[in-house]
């Protein structure tokens, strides 16, 4: 069942139930009010009995049932139980009321095929004199019955009208949802994540100038805002998904291109070794194959790092950035002791993933190591800036040309001078990814000699505790 049909049925059922409850309350209340009005009229006529009695005596109709407006009046002197003159008989209860031994009362009784509402009371405190005022009960019943039939017809009619109105309103309100659903189905069928998602912003609507509809217009705008937000959220999601899919395809294409060369070379060397195992150049070929296998392993590790799911793979904790940098420099110095290393680290506390931050700083140091001359220096500094922890790595190499500067953080980008050096062109791309994952930045700063890279992360308030 469609959402529009469910809304229609729900609104119709709610309106029907509400009106049925109202009718169930109104019908008996109106009936009680009609009976109360009728009883008050009977009491009023009975109160005028002393005035009317004089006229009846003159007319000789005292004791008979005489009309008085819409009611019938009977005054019975010396009332005793038995048959009355032209009306219902006098009961023992009536005789007690006439003697003042019982209170006046109302009752319904049929006479001549008509049900009467009868009020019985004592005549002007005179013992033995009875006053009875009667009115056909059908007059009140007719009005109540008419009201009942009106409610019986009105309740379902109103429910049907509300359901129809709800269906029309649902069609209008849910139109953007239907369009969004059609877009989703089209994307699912075609796989085209660039399909345009229509959003309906309430701000673009013309304001309603009728004062009487301001509240409903505000409600409509709130509803439209929610639907617009849904459309905008879905559009942002498809855009992010398209960007992710595009990046994955580009990564696969670039990776396949980069893997092809070392795989071809490795395969060639292994084939030569298999064909000529006793060839004098076999050790050289084996060494080359091992080197190429190492390059492949490093490239695959870099690809795995790049393919990780961003923030989902982070283990965030408080990290001493200066201690991480010191560990990286110490490890690099053991591996390449010929270079000079200058370390200037201030205690700096940030929140991040220790392993990822160590990898980023290590890549920056390895990049400086690759470009440094044999007697060069690698300078690493850690400092606290304005709400940031910064790591700067600089070298004495040839620097970065203006043509290469915009692209050095791109995946697989290698400048013309770097193609003769080992590496996959992924190290700096991984640094940028780690910076993005930590809401930080990384930038290359050209210098007169060498290059400087600045890796910045939001730091924590206050100085770290040293222990």
How would you describe the overall organization of this protein?
This protein has 467 residues and is of the alpha+beta class. The protein has three domains: 1-173, Beta-Lactamase, CATH 3.30.450; 193-307; 314-458, Histidine kinase-like ATPase, C-terminal domain (Heat Shock Protein 90), CATH 3.30.565. It is 53% helix and 18% strand. The chain contains ten helices and 14 strands. The chain has helices at residues 3-47, 49-59, 92-98, 138-173, 175-190, 214-275, 282-307, 321-335, 354-371, 427-437; strands at 66-68, 71-76, 82-84, 87-90, 105-111, 114-122, 130-136, 317-320, 340-345, 349-352, 377-384, 388-394, 441-446, 451-458. The strands form four sheets. A five-stranded antiparallel β-sheet has the order 1-2-7-6-5. The protein has a five-stranded mixed β-sheet with strand order 9-11-12-14-13, with helices on one face. Strands 3-4 form a two-stranded antiparallel sheet. Helix 1 (3-47) runs antiparallel to helix 4 (138-173). The chain starts with a helix and ends in a 9-residue tail after the last strand. Mean pLDDT is 79; it is low at 201-217 and 462-467.
